[in-house]
Design brief:
CATH superfamily: MM3350-like
Helix content: 10-25%
Number of strands: 8
Organism: Mariniphaga sediminis
InterPro entries: MM3350-like_sf, Plasmid_pRiA4b_Orf3-like
Distance between the termini: 83 Å
Number of helices: 3
Strand content: 25-35%
Largest sheet: 8 strands, mixed
Number of domains: 1
CATH architecture: Roll
Protein name: Plasmid pRiA4b Orf3-like domain-containing protein
CATH topology: Structural Genomics Hypothetical 15.5 Kd Protein In mrcA-pckA Intergenic Region, Chain A
Structural class: alpha+beta
CATH class: Alpha Beta
Order of helices and strands: EEHEEEHEEEH
Pfam family, one: PRiA4_ORF3
Strand order of the largest sheet: 5-4-3-6-7-1-2-8
Radius of gyration: 24 Å
Length: 175
């Protein structure tokens, strides 16, 4: 008989100090399940590539758990959907890195803060969320002036359609 385990993970960001996320996941869940709850909780869009990394003692990335099967041979390489958390999480205080922006080498840091034995969890669960997550892709912060300009252009376009209608059918008379 195998032991059922629930992992408590703390997720932080080195660039957004007030961001703090805690999740619970079953050891039988895949890394893709963990990826999905992080995406949902942070508001990240799922079309961006991401990977988990398990670092060595010095923090150097050793094992990659990738979202996509890139067909890489050799090295410690795993696929999120095929790899259970219990396959790679070995002990309390286990560290992981969740890289969500490869171009700018930006990541979230995960730390295993507790393990509960003999408990079952069907879905990953967010137990705490504080602060704002970092933006997923740099340069995507909303620009207030640009948004206002786009809204003004939309209004002008709407009136343009009305002008075309008047040209085709003439002015409408008020009754």
């Amino acid at each position: 008989m195998f032991k059922v385990m629930i992992y408590h993970l703390r997720i932080t960001s080195p660039e957004t100090k007030n961001f703090h996320l805690e999740v619970e996941v079953d050891g039988e869940h895949s890394f893709f399940d963990l990826h999905s709850i992080i995406q949902k909780s942070t508001g990240f869009e799922s079309h961006q590539l991401a990977s988990f990394f398990i670092p060595d003692q010095s923090g150097k990335k050793q094992k990659e758990i990738s979202l996509l099967d890139l067909g890489m041979n050799g090295g410690a390489y795993f696929i999120m959907q095929k790899t259970k958390l219990s396959d790679l999480i070995e002990s309390k205080a286990q560290q992981m890195i969740y890289t969500f922006d490869f171009i700018n080498d930006r990541s979230l840091y995960l730390e295993l803060t507790g393990i509960v034995m003999e408990k079952n969890l069907k879905e990953p669960l967010v137990t705490l969320k504080q602060g704002d997550a970092p933006v997923q892709v740099l340069g995507e912060e909303p620009d207030v002036q640009e948004a206002t300009k786009l809204q003004e252009e939309e209004v002008l376009m709407d009136f343009g359609i009305l002008d075309d209608y008047n040209e085709l059918y003439g002015e409408m008379e008020d009754y």
